[in-house]
Amino acid sequence: MDLRQIRNLMKEFEESKIHKIEINEKDFSIKLEKEDNKFFSNPSHAPATSFVESVQMKEEGLEDIVKNNNYIVKAPLVGTYYNAPSPDSEPFVRVNQKVIKGDVLFIVEAMKVMNEITSPVSGTIVKINVKDTSMVEFDQSVMEIKE
Description:
Elements: H1 3-15, E1 20-25, E2 28-33, H2 51-60, E3 65-67, E4 70-74, E5 79-82, E6 98-99, E7 104-110, E8 113-118, E9 123-128, E10 135-136, E11 141-146
Antiparallel strand pairs: 1-2, 3-4, 4-11, 5-7, 5-10, 6-9, 7-8, 9-11
C-alpha cells in the first residue's frame, strides 16, 4: 500500500461513522481509531483538528509541545525508533547534549523508509523516553528538550 492509498483510506475513515478499523495484509498493517467527541462537555477540551489534519501536520514537521518548560518531541508516525544511523555508529544525541534547531535527533523506520526526525528547537536533551530499536506509536513522547 503506498502513501497515497493510506491518505485516501484515512480520509474515507475520518468521513465515515466507523470509529475503529484494522487492516492486515502480508507485510503491511494499519489500525485507525477515532476519539469520540461526545464525551467532551467543554468545547475547549475537544480535539482542535481532525485525525487526518493531525497526521498531515505531523508529516510536515514536529509539533512543539511544552511541558515543565521542556519541549516534548513526539513520534510523527508509527515505526521502529533508531537512535543512530547504523548499528555501529554513535547515537545522534545523548542526554545533556546540546542540539540546534534542525539537528537530527533520531530515525523512525516505517515501511522500510528511514524518516529522520529533527529538533524543533535549540536546547539541551534532558530525557530520552525510548530505547533503541523499540516500536514507537504515533504521537508518543520520544524525548524532551530544555530550551
